Hints:
Rossmann fold, nine-stranded mixed β-sheet
Amino acid sequence: MKTTVPAGSLRPTRTTTVTVGDLQVTVDDHDRTRPFLVLHGGGGVGTVRGFAALLSERTRARVIVPTHPGFGGTTRPAGLATTRDLAAAYLALLDELDLVDVTVIGNSFGGWIAAEMALLGNPRLSGAVIVDGIGIEVEGHPVTDLRGLAPSELAALSFHDPAKAPRPPAGVSGPRPDLAALASYTGPAMSDPTLITRLAGLDLPVHVIWGESDGIVSPAYGKAYADAIPRSAFTVLPRSGHLPQVETPEELLGAILDLGD
Length: 261
């Protein structure tokens, strides 16, 4: 492993590059006790770093935060083509790190990955939290097409209060690189028509958490996600959009801990 210390006020214990077969995964590693794997969505790893630091600080947990290969300028091998491929790679990462009793928390695309990881039935996982996840198809509640949206339009869909949205980098216009990386895994529909039926076979406790003001995937979509999973709980967070870990992190943490995840 290569270890570096990143700059910034909310610093993880360390950032490492872990080799898993022919795949190199960059992870933020908050090395404490109980393990959590926190998975970001299309907005990139920056959308979960602050919450991962909060989770680690409040629970004294070990929190692993990978950057999905292909996001943030990282390399993605040609063989890593689908969400299920990425789920299998992250289970191999848990093997490499020798982690057990892991709770995986995924937001948006990360929630889809978390669902696929849970479906693989690996004994290293003890539970999953899906936060405003994507991946299923729900009649009458499509995933909003993000292609071509201006940053202000994306913020309006993603936040209960768009003023809380991080400002895009100066000079950014048009599709952002991480949205392109997202589409390379998910396809333009950002869904798998088989996922909702496959979830019926999931034998793991899953907490589905949704922002009531999510304009990308509605709370009705979230309820359908929870209803498809036999051992699930469903929580709606008020004054939250698609990124509760950014907009209302304390409320999200409270919802996770209230159910013992």
